[in-house]
Amino acid sequence: MSHQRILRMDATCAPAVQAGDQVRKGQNLCAPQAEDACVCPVTGTVVEVRFDPAEHEFVVTIEPSKPG
Amino acid sequence: MAPDETPYTSILEAAQARGMATGLVVTCTMSHATPAVFGAHVKSRKMEPEIAEQLIKNRINVLFGGGRKYFLPKSHSDSGRKDDRDLLAEAEDAGYTIIQTANQLRWVRGPFVLGLFQVDALTTLKPEPMLAEMTRKAIDILDETATDSRKYGRGFFLMVEGSQIDWACHANDPNACVRQVLLFDEAVRAAVDFAVADGRTLVVVTADHETGGLTIPEGSLKGDKIKVHWSTKGHSASPVPVYAIGPKSERFGGVYDNTEIPQRIAQVLGIKPFPQARK
Fold first, then answer.
1. What are the chain A neighbours of B164 within 8 Å (beta carbons)?
2. pLDDT of amino acid B223
C-alpha cells in the first residue's frame, strides 16, 4: 500500500520543488512570491511534479520518509 | 465577480445587452476559467457544472469547445456532473443546435449552436475541428445572425481563446508551445481576414498573462535549432502585447493594466457605464 501524499497547488504560482528534492514537514512548496502557501504535510522526497490542465493546478507527489 | 461576490456585467453580456450576437470559442472545456469570465458568474473556477448551466441560460449564440462531460447527467458514463440535469437536452429545448463533430460544424446554421467536440478538453488534433475552423464558423454564424435578426442586429462580439498555450508553458514544453501558438495564429488570421473584408470589425489580440518566462538565449532564424530557457512553471509578470486592427484600433495602444481592455472595448461600442454591477 502506497503512503505517498499528493498535494495540489494553483498553477498561477510555480512549485518551488522538483522530483528528487528532499522536503520537510511545514515547508512551503510554492515559489516565494505566491500569495497562498502550499505547506508540505510530511518530511520526505518529491516523487513527481506534474501540471493538471483541467484543474489548472500543479500536483506534487511526496514519498514520506516515515510511512504512516 | 468582485471579491465581495458582487457579480459584474462582462463585456460579452454588455455587448449582448446592446443588441449584439455573441460567441465563445475555446480549446479547453467550454466551462473553463476564460469562457466563464465572459459568460458566467461563480465564486470559483472549479464550479464547471454551474458555469455550463449559466452559459446556456445566458443565451450566448455560439459556444464551441470541449467539456461535454459538464453538460451530461450523472447517469451518463462520461458525466462530470453530480446531478441529473441534462444540459444538452435543456439547450436543445432552448433553441440550440447541438453538434459534436467537424463535419456537423461545416453544415450547422445559427442562431444558437452548442458545439462540444470532446468529453474533456480538446486534443487539438484531427478529427476535431481546429481552432481556426471553429473561429471561421463562429464568425459566419454570428455575422449571419446579426444580419438577419432584429434582436441581434447590432453586430457581434466573439471571444476566441488559444487555451492550451498556457498549458504548454506550464509544462515548459517548447514544441507544444510553438504548435499551440501556431494554431492560435491561424485563428487570428481567420478573424483578421474577415475584419479586413468587412471593414467594420475591430479585432483585438492579447493574453491575460505570460506563462513560463520563456526566453531564447541561443539560436537564429537561419539555424534549425534554438535553445529555450524557462524561468518558471507558473505565471509571470511579464507584460503581454495587445494587437488591434480595425475601426478605433488606435485606442488600444500604450501601456496599461489588462483590466482596461474590456473598458476600452466598451468605449468603442458606446457602452456606458462599464463596468457595472449586474442587476
1. 53
2. 78
- Please give the Cα distance from A68 to B56 (Å, whole number): 47
Best residue in B164, B167, B231 to probe A by mutation, most A CBs within 10 Å?
B167
Task: For residue A54, give the nearest of B120, B233, B234 by CB distance.
Answer: B120
For chain A, the maximum distance between any two Cα atoms, rounded to a whole number of angstroms, is 36
Q: Which of B163, B170, B173, B231 to mutate to test the interface with A (most CBs of A within 10 A)?
A: B170
Q: How would residue B55 be classed by pLDDT, with cut points 50, 70 and 90?
A: very high
Cα separation, B210 vs A32, whole angstroms: 18
Beta-carbon separation of B234 and A12 below 8 A: yes
SS3 B63: strand
Chain B, 92 to 121: residues with Cβ < 8 Å from chain A are: 120-121
Q: List C-alpha distances in Å: A56 to A10, A68, B27, B106, B235.
A: 6, 29, 14, 31, 11
Cis previous bond, B127, omega within 30: yes
Exposure class string for B33-54: b at 16+ Cβ within 10 A, else e: bbbbbbbbbbeebebbbbbbbb
Cβ A14–B33 below 8 Å, yes or no? Answer: no
Residue A12 near chain B (CB below 8 Å): yes
Grid cell 489580440 is found at: B205
Q: What's the CA gap between B272 and B37, in Å, rounded?
A: 19
Residue A33: predicted pLDDT: 62
pLDDT value at residue A1: 58
Asked if A44 contacts A5 with a C-beta cutoff of 8 angstroms, the reply is: yes
